[in-house]
């Protein structure tokens, strides 16, 4: 019983040391968590290294009595001491069991669970061909919608657009004259006024001459047409087709009834003709007004138009404008020369074949020559029909030969020589543009369709070359060995430095 107070004292001292150790370990763990240290934990006691110094001393177990401690104070054999209470290993086990255990990795799904594949990217799931077709399709839809809206706008202001387009064509025809007068010292205003008045006076005289010739010869032509119809009737009666006079009279009666039944429509067409005359006069005035200002202020109008173009594309458009104007000028001047040659040669042929209204027919041939392909066919057919009805089959056949010969010379000699390659347009593009122009603007649309297509072709070709040139400038030049490998070399027999310029 005398040893009981000593044992209790030793037990209290051991518990106190254990509590101090636990507090020091918890403080150390909290400091590491705050610093983000994930390294292995080291014991808080002094480290032992292989370096020189005093020896570590005799190894002591945690439960062995220290200096001044009574023997057997911290031994596990002491009665009443819990197992592991006086050892650091026991304290560490208590700290580890206090924290919840974290799983090392996510457990794998059970074997019976179905495999779920990840969904692919929608862009990667669409085939490449479908993606290309979709990209091209929506761009074509936007382009088609833009063209449709533009056509709707043009059809709503058709008279203004057609008048301004004709004014541009007339300006292209008269502008070289203004330039020549200015080079000779004539002021711009006076040169513009003289050219404008002379040009429209000449065009007015041509129109007046055509109307006068038609009015002078209409009675003669109507009588010859009636005689030609009688000749055709007699030929049908004695032809191998076995046509009877009763059938011919029935056809004539049907024509008279059709004319009588449509009298109201003919009257309304006459009233609409008055509206057409008013629109024609309005269009003529708009054309004259626009031509005058285009001749006088053409460069200023072009500079103002360039300001509407975005700055990034302004340089390319500024270069394409003069080339487009040169193409339009060459087209108008060449077409006038070709049309004049056609009218003169065919008119001379009609005069020597004694066809009535030879001069008005020649003027019609000149005017219809501004409609490529289609105009030549229509005017030539009109001359052949007049010759056939008034002079007979032989004269009609001769006029047909003359018209075909002149048109062949025009297509294979005159147009390539006069117009050249500057305004060369494929025949399919000519036919389609004339058809589209006639549907949109009638005869006027057919006249302006081909020059617009020629100008558009020139602009597209220039802009394509301009963009390719800019792309080549943006590519950095070769350097080092690549530059020496791609540099031009002189042919054999020439000194270095002279081969690159040859």
Produce the secondary structure layout.
Blueprint: H1 4-35, H2 88-98, H3 122-125, H4 128-156, H5 158-183, H6 188-237, H7 245-261, H8 263-307, H9 311-352, H10 358-368, H11 374-391, H12 393-418, H13 427-474, H14 480-486
Helix pairs in contact: 5-6, 5-8, 5-9, 5-13, 6-8, 6-10, 6-11, 9-10, 9-12, 9-13, 10-11, 11-12
Summed up:
By secondary structure, the protein is mainly alpha-helical. It has 14 helices and no strands. Helix content is 73%, strand content 0%.
Helix segment count? Answer: 14
Helical amount among residues, as a percent range?
A: over 70%
Question: How many extended strands?
Answer: 0
Low-confidence stretches: 38-98, 490-502
Radius of gyration: 52 Å
Beta content: under 5%
Order of helices and strands: HHHHHHHHHHHHHH
Main β sheet profile: none
Shape: elongated
Distance between the termini: 126 Å
Give the helix/strand class: mainly alpha
Average pLDDT metric: 74
Supply the key terms.
disordered C terminus; elongated; single chain; mainly alpha; 502 residues
Can you offer a commentary on this structure?
With 502 residues, the chain is mainly α. The chain has 14 helices and no strands. The chain has helices at residues 4-35, 88-98, 122-125, 128-156, 158-183, 188-237, 245-261, 263-307, 311-352, 358-368, 374-391, 393-418, 427-474, 480-486. Residues 38-98 and 490-502 have low confidence and may be disordered.
């Amino acid at each position: 019983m005398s040893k009981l107070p000593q044992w209790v004292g030793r037990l209290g001292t051991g518990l106190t040391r254990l509590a101090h150790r636990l507090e020091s370990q918890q403080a150390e763990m909290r400091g590491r968590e705050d610093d983000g240290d994930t390294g292995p934990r080291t014991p808080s006691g002094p480290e032992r290294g292989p370096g020189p110094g005093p020896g570590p001393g005799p190894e002591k177990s945690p439960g062995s009595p220290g200096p001044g401690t009574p023997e057997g104070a911290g031994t596990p054999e002491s009665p009443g001491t819990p197992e592991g209470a006086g050892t650091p290993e026991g304290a560490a086990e208590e700290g580890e069991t206090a924290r919840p255990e974290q799983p090392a990795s996510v457990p794998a799904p059970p074997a019976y669970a179905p495999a779920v594949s990840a969904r692919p990217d929608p862009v990667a799931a669409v085939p490449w061909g479908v993606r290309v077709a979709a990209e091209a399709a929506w761009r074509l839809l936007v382009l088609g919608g833009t063209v449709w809206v533009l056509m709707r706008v043009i059809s709503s202001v058709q008279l203004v657009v057609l008048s301004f387009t004709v004014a541009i064509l007339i300006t292209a025809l008269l502008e070289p004259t203004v330039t020549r007068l200015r080079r000779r010292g004539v002021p711009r205003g006076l040169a513009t006024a003289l050219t404008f008045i002379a040009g429209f006076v000449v065009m007015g005289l041509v129109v007046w001459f055509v109307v006068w010739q038609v009015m002078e010869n209409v009675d003669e032509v109507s009588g010859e047409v009636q005689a030609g119809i009688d000749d055709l009737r007699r030929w049908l009666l004695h032809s191998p087709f076995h046509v009877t006079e009763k059938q011919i009279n029935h056809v004539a009666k049907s024509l008279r009834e059709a004319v009588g039944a449509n009298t109201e429509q003919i009257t309304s067409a006459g009233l609409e003709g008055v509206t057409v005359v008013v629109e024609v006069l309005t269009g003529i005035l708009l054309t004259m007004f626009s031509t005058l200002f285009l001749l006088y202020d053409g460069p200023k109008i072009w500079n103002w138009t360039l300001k509407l173009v975005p700055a990034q594309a302004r340089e390319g458009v500024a270069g394409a404008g003069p080339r487009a104007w040169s193409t339009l000028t060459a087209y108008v001047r060449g077409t006038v020369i070709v049309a004049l040659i056609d009218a003169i040669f065919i008119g001379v042929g009609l005069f020597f074949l004694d066809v009535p209204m030879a001069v008005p027919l020649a003027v019609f041939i000149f005017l219809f020559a501004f409609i490529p392909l289609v105009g030549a066919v229509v005017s030539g057919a009109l001359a052949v029909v007049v010759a056939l009805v008034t002079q007979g089959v032989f004269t009609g056949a001769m006029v047909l030969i003359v018209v075909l010969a002149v048109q062949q010379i025009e297509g294979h000699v005159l147009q390539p020589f006069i117009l050249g390659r500057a305004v060369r347009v494929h025949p399919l593009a000519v036919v389609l543009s004339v058809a589209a122009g006639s549907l949109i603007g009638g005869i006027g649309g057919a006249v302006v369709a081909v020059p617009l297509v020629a100008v558009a072709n020139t602009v597209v070709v220039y802009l394509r070359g301009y963009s390719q040139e800019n792309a080549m400038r943006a590519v950095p030049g070769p350097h080092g060995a690549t530059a020496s490998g791609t540099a031009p070399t002189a042919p054999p027999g020439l000194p270095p430095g002279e081969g690159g310029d040859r």
